[in-house]
Hints:
By secondary structure, the protein is of the alpha/beta class. 38% of the residues lie in helices and 15% in strands.
Amino acid sequence: MTSDENWSRRSQAARALGWVDQSTRAVTPPIHPASTFLRDPDNQYSSGYSYARDTNPTYDQAEALLCELEGGAAAMLFASGMAAAGAVFLNLAPGDHVLAPRVMYWGLRKWLMDFAVPWGLVVDFIDMGDLVAIKAALRPGQSRLIWIETPANPLWGISDIAAIAALTHGVGARLAVDSTVATPVLSQPLILGADVVMHSATKYLNGHSDMIGGALVASQRDEFWQGLADIRHDGGAVLGAFEAWLLLRGMRTLYPRVEAACRNAQAVAEHFHDHAEIVEVLYPGLPSAPDHALAARQMRGGFGGMLSLRVRGGEARAIEVAANVKLWSRATSLGGVESLIEHRASVEGPDTPVPGDLLRLSCGIEDAKDLIADLERALAIGIS
């Protein structure tokens, strides 16, 4: 069953496109854990399902909803965000040239350096906020992909999707956008000219810190998209039925969760801006942020639930502040209903571009006053 085309994207998410299981009429989508499906007497699969490494009715609905929210032509779930991102690069050929951000999710940056480059890709890491540098780094005839992440973890710089798309397509390459932090609530990269959008579905799309998953959404079903489907099938990086069900459940509350996280992040950023114990607040929602005007033009309804605080006193002091919180949880990840804090440089290691005094904050849906008070109390401990 398809949804009413007049529904807003918010309503599409809340109702999961309005699909109803015809055999039960249940308001909650079912889980199909089957790994294999019956053939017809004529040896065909009239149901459309043959084996769960190809398709599964449980993730059909989640893929369709994500496709609708992003304004794409096709969506595909993966076993993790890394599996989804890796598939995009593995769909290239040795010798192909790729541009990636200097500041990006550390796990993917490490994978590019440790695996993709030895495998044969030529990867340049550049400042994705500098359009002149991007244009200069492109190699006509060799550049095949630009990968951007916006807002970029964990310094939260903004890349101009539309402008970079124009540069990318000018040399016959594709633009892929990690939009995990923005989510379809705040940004639709495909509408702005991107070819592929990637989500770590573990984060905001699921929103409850209880599953691992990834997703790709494409602007069109073409040869490149078929290549991604082949990589998922042949490599087996498919999402389990229960995880797909958890993801679909999470996406039904995507809008109110993201909106609450944005409000909390804005409140925290504004409170600690010019705070005596904070060197700098990194958040594109602050008018003083260097990318604020671009973020305001490219994003809608908020600037995301992620921000970073640089703590006065250096790395040891930042770690001490994180140790002193009570409401914030000291944990890796982001996008859940609970607020998280971590000393990011400790996670990324010695090659990180992240300052040692930086604490990364993922705002959940708690009361903003409580989140601010908890940080204030943590900052006050140890001050003579």
